[in-house]
Design a protein that fits this description.
mainly alpha; 6 helices; 78% helix
Amino acid sequence: MLLLLFAAFLIVPAIELYLIIEVSHQVGFGNTLIALVFISVIGAWMVKREGLQIIRKTQIELANGQLPGKQIVEGLLILLAGVLMLTPGFATDAIGLLLLFPLTRIMLRSFLTRRFVKKLKTGQAFLWGSKNNDSQRVVDVEWDVSDTNKRNKKELEE
């Protein structure tokens, strides 16, 4: 984990800075700046468009009584794409744009889902509260929704 943070905060900015300097030597500083701003604006528009599409799909699945598992993962990938698009640089923008295209996002989503399920089966990953912990207590409660609905209707009628 420490190595990942090291890469995220030191290596990635160094690569980005190197790429920006190299591109500015090839096409000029002004053109490089325009390209970075243009890519960021296009990326922000795509993040908004794809995000709203995922929200609509989620609402449809919830209205049909289904859990929107795929849409949640895709929403997180779009969020990651947005963060990458906000980071100035060509490499992070390229990765962010790849995450915004539905085909590459679906491929990555299925890969991550398969990997997570495999780790769950082998016991290398766990969901919150799924690990045996003596300090956790389970409280079993029965709840009858019809009584609450009847009570609410009576209160509305009065």
